[in-house]
Amino acid sequence: MPLRRFILPVIALFVLLSVYCTNSSPKPGMEMVKDLLITQSDSLNLSLNQLDEAARGRDTTLLRKRFLETRNAFKKMEWFCEYYAPGLSREVNGPPLPEVEVEENKSTEPSGLQVIEELIYPAQPSEKENLKLEITSLRASLVRLKSTIVQTELTEAHVFDACKLEIFRITITGITGFDTPLSGSGIAEAGVSLKAVAGVLQMFGKNEALQKQIDQAVSYVGQHVDFNAFDRMTFIRVYANQISKGILKWQNELKIKPLETELALYNKAGTLFDSGIFNIKHFVNSAEAIPSPEKLAIGKALFNDPIVSGSVRTCNSCHKPELAFSDGLIKSPSLTPGESVQRNAPTLMYAGLQNAQFYDMRFSSLENQAMDVIANKDEMHGSIEEAAKRLEKDQRYYLLFQKAFPAMEKEIKPRFVMIAIASYIRSLSPFNSRLDQYMRGDNQKMNPNELKGFNLFMGKAKCATCHFMPLFNGTAGPSFSNTEGEVLGVLQDPKAKKPIIDSDEGRYNWTKMDVLKFAFKTPTLRNIALTGPYMHNGAYETLEEVMDFYNKGGAAGMGIKLDNQTLSPDPLNLSEKEIQDIIAFLKTLNDQ
């Protein structure tokens, strides 16, 4: 063979190898993450196609298998979807309840995986036409999702933040069955989400300690997939908390500058139970209303001063500190002798960390809440304008307002009074309960029965699917951007032989939207042992009565027709011992 004929192929091969090696060399981390997401998006579409094919047949086992595969495909991308495209994420995996836009007086029918779950997990799957429509709708959402991935500019700080928040999401909703109420696949899916986070973090290099933590968590989940038996406390304390702290630590080691924008949680948050992790500014409607020590001091004084109402009534009259800022009454006395106000006085503790005020959620801000209470003819029957004038004549208060509001001219504006009171209420979030202390490492703060109660609360009893940890109210993390209400069918008298729904129609009274008839805000359960009697009407004297109501499935579970009830009508089948364990846990939520 002539030497030229031998050398030319060798040179060509060398050139090809050079091109190949150049093209296959590691890409910058963010490009690798985006490529991974695009691949996962294609896999999700493929899984949906297989689900669609199974939906055309009669094999229920195969249909459910394909459904779970589709859910797993989504869970691999959940960290991105929830962080970068929350609206689309709701389309793909939002609650199977109408999305209500009160301001626009409209509700949008739900769609996505949770709606599909309801169509294929009855005893005998039916409604194939509806299932086909839902799959078609989901496919359209996935097209938009892929487009979002392609167009999104990823940054290292955002990706690390999204991964950490995904660990929080797993502990808040994933392991509670929030988005898997019928399939019971939430525990197994937690393992999928953890692996997905590990895969993304590997794009930044090797971190053997963090990878080991995630591997151990995945192994633990894989060995304990039974939903009711899963030890959520062990998972959170031993695994999830260590992983989220590890992610934050590695970000610091890599010198990836934290995000400058602080949302509901401070970026320094390593776990959901770190002290002082909530950014109160996120829950404030204006820069002027951001709390300060000076505003707080005025608010605390006004809270206890009848100068606000111009009568003997103060905020303290119905919100007593020793009762976690409730009053221990069924309903507070009205200013009209012999009458009561419309509803039970709720605790004000942690009220600053929610996005809706009053049981009927008619206001979003604490400032408007303060104004409404002062003006209410049954509560204070005063005027915020007149209160401001009275305070202006008081030299002590005038000087305090000047110091708290440097831009103040001569007048104490009514809004300054509202802001001051709201600032004080926003300070009532100590996060110092025995549960908080146990989560931070003090092993002596909870006993075995309380720990069983926590696991029941987060699992079998399904309490945590409405009372989201760590606030234990209707404000779901990790975004904490929306506060939810529920339709339970609260009874007029839980002791009555014939159950009758309380006549108060809640949010419907001011929205006139049928879907919100008998809907009320989901309040915090922190300090619940101090705030009885319970429910918006104060008709439930004890926590045992409340638990019995939930155990039976609310009004619908008791045979009352209530088509828009959002609480599952299915009985929880909790034993008396399990109920007592849950109540024991609830008492650990009292602030010390």
Automatic annotation (TrEMBL):
Molecular function GO terms recorded: cytochrome-c peroxidase activity; electron transfer activity; heme binding; metal ion binding
Domain Cytochrome c residue range list: 294-429, 448-590
Cited InterPro entries: Cyt_c-like_dom, Cyt_c-like_dom_sf, Cytochrome_c_Peroxidase/MauG, Di-haem_cyt_c_peroxidsae, Imelysin_sf
PROSITE patterns attached to this UniProt entry: CYTC
GO CC entries: cell envelope
Superkingdom of this protein's organism: Bacteria
Predominant localisation class: other
Record-linked Pfam families: CCP_MauG (PF03150), Cytochrom_C (PF00034)
Compartmental location: Cell envelope
UniProt keyword annotation of S-adenosyl-L-methionine present: no
Signal peptide: none
Alphabetically ordered keywords of this record: Heme, Iron, Metal-binding, Oxidoreductase, Signal
Protein name: Cytochrome c domain-containing protein
Source organism: Pedobacter steynii
